[in-house]
């Protein structure tokens, strides 16, 4: 398996450090798994809410545009201060891992 970092931030929304050939190699492959990793503890309900905001889901084809939209949606939701996506290839499939820095909840 190979890891392909897809680091996107609010300032660089819609861009990637990956080379075009790598980006093209992932396009259209089936997403077999999606994982959310939080840098801070979050509740099960909040994890479900964040995953529910994401268009990228297991069983769908992998598309960079969908990840770009997920980045925008997550930032606009106010749930995260930072998000990083990593795509891990396994055969013809892709595992997408989203690592978030959740925005602190106001009490």
Task: Describe the structure in your own words.
- This protein is an alpha+beta fold.
- The chain contains three helices and four strands; from the N terminus they run E-H-E-H-H-E-E.
- The protein has a four-stranded mixed β-sheet with strand order 1-3-4-2, with helices on one face.
- A hairpin with a 2-residue loop joins strand 3 and strand 4 (93-102).
Largest beta sheet: what is the strand line-up?
1-3-4-2
Which overall shape is indicated by the principal axes computed on the Cα atoms?
Answer: elongated
| Overall pLDDT | 82
Number of strands: 4
Provide a short characterization of the protein structure:
The protein has 107 residues and is α+β, with helices and mostly antiparallel strands. The protein has three helices and four strands, in the order βαβααββ.
Topology, please?
Blueprint: E1 2-7, H1 20-26, E2 30-38, H2 44-53, H3 64-77, E3 80-90, E4 93-102
Parallel strand pairs: 2-4
Antiparallel strand pairs: 1-3, 3-4
